[in-house]
């Protein structure tokens, strides 16, 4: 499929699940490029693109995909952090293709597993979804993405990314706050585990040196 989809063509009344399902419907046998996906979105592009990239990473103990999608998520969240209005990705990433099979799996997952996201989210506490608060949400997205790329630790930070993305798309400050809490809690837990590991390893080495010295 050629990169000929016009910009800003999605229906504002359409929920994010319908939009994800729509991507699978319009894709050809080769799928869609990231450029084509981006060009189907309106001003919700940042949140929607990050959500689309995060959905495959919700699968527990996944390896490979989080490390690939982590780069564009970081680029998108970084642009949100500095206040950019439209998403930019390097040409090499825009040419990458999301296969038809992957788009179908994403649509199926969104319809079957994420319905409650759409049902429960609505515009509220919108002060947490605009301006500086939106940039703060981008910072939490970066925090979640840094942990998502670690082997076998992808599901929890992907939940954080999904909550943050849906919150920004639906202008739901409660979802944004929940996503920030999950991202912070998970990063803190990983830090505690890492510190404990290094402290324990140092203690074990010292103990061995004591008995073998």
UniProtKB/TrEMBL annotation:
InterPro entries (UniProt xref): ExoD
Name of the protein in its database record: Exopolysaccharide synthesis ExoD
Keywords per UniProt: Membrane, Transmembrane, Transmembrane helix
PANTHER family named among the record's database cross-references: EXOPOLYSACCHARIDE SYNTHESIS PROTEIN
Pfam family, one: ExoD
Domain of life of the source: Bacteria
Spans traversing the lipid bilayer: 45-65, 173-206
